[in-house]
Amino acid sequence: MDIIKLISILAAAFAVSIGSIGPALAEGRSVAAAMDAIARQPEAAGTISRTLFVGLAMIETMAIYCLVIALLLLFANPYAG
Amino acid sequence: MAASPLASTVAFHLGPVDITGPVVTTWAIMAVLALSSWLVTRRLALRPNRRQVILELVVTGIMDQIDEVIRKKPRPFLPLLGTLFIFLVTANLSGVLPGVEAPTGKLETPAALALIVFIAVHFYGVRARGFVGYLASFAKPKLIMMPLNILSEITRTFSMMVRLFGNVMSGAFVIALIVSLAGLFVPIPLMALEILVGLVQAYIFTVLATVFIGAAVDAAEPG
């Protein structure tokens, strides 16, 4: 196996593993904050959870970007020939 | 190794043009939506029957959401945004049907939808403020911010495209991997999650389009 493919696979694994740390922490914090808010104001639960879902999807997008980079490296690598 | 998620298979040839699988699925979805819209709106009455009640519930629901997001009369934006939402829901959920790949899980369909939103933002902006007024909105709050404002127009369109593509594609990809690793009935909870993700992504795409259009129309807050 030539060196570019080897490095691409390593880079894909690193992109997903490191790139998912930040979104994971951020999602945990936002869910905790939303729980806190719902516990304080149960009557606003609808609005809070709707905003939470949109926010979670936004945060999750960062991890998805890393996944797309990893897939580009694995399947559409311009340097691997 | 699984097939590349970035490439599309060619279904058939139409003269010199290759027609890919996602295009055929999109056409089928468009036909189903157009036919069902025609059937549902055929006999509208002042005293609605059950079918019309469901229809009115959907339409007023979308209008209420638009109204909540941009605080304007939702009627001018309803045709685009409502169609976008209904199409996205159908397209994202079509991946659940056996043998059908969700067209939004390939890069071309989200790219086309994001391009439609990109053009629609400028169309509504120019229509609401006039050409010069809309161009001037890019120079706010200072003239030096103009390159950044223009850049953000492009990057947010790109990010909409990648968000939709990545979420739908990754779901289908993970299910394909689990099927090949674990067997037949194991990915069912993941497919249930995929239905939720498809609905949420359709909602987010539409809400983002609404926010961008609202920002382009609103004089106080330029995009």
Protein described:
The complex is a heterodimer of chains A (81) and B (223). Chain A contains 3 helices and no strands. Chain A is an all-alpha fold. The radius of gyration of chain A is 18 Å and the shape is elongated. Chain B is mainly alpha-helical. Chain B has helices spanning 21-40, 50-70, 78-93, 108-129, 131-136, 146-182, 188-217, and strands at residues 10-14, 17-20. In chain B, strands 1-2 form a two-stranded antiparallel sheet. In chain B, helix 1 crosses helix 3, helix 2 (50-70) packs across helix 7 (188-217) and helix 3 packs antiparallel against helix 7. The model of chain B has no long low-confidence stretch (mean pLDDT 86). The chains are: A mainly alpha (81), B mainly alpha (223).
How are the SSEs ordered, and which strands pair?
The complex is a heterodimer of chains A (81) and B (223).
Chain A: H1 3-19, H2 21-40, H3 45-75
Helix pairs in contact in A: 1-3, 2-3
Chain B: E1 10-14, E2 17-20, H1 21-40, H2 50-70, H3 78-93, H4 108-129, H5 131-136, H6 146-182, H7 188-217
Helix pairs in contact in B: 1-3, 2-7, 3-7, 4-6, 4-7, 6-7
| Strand element count of chain A | 0
Along the chain, the helix and strand elements of chain B come as EEHHHHHHH
Q: Quick one: biggest sheet of chain A? A: none
Strand neighbour order, sheet with most strands of chain B: 1-2
Q: Structural class of the secondary structure composition of chain A? A: mainly alpha
Shape of chain A: elongated
- Report mean pLDDT of chain A, rounded to a whole number: 88
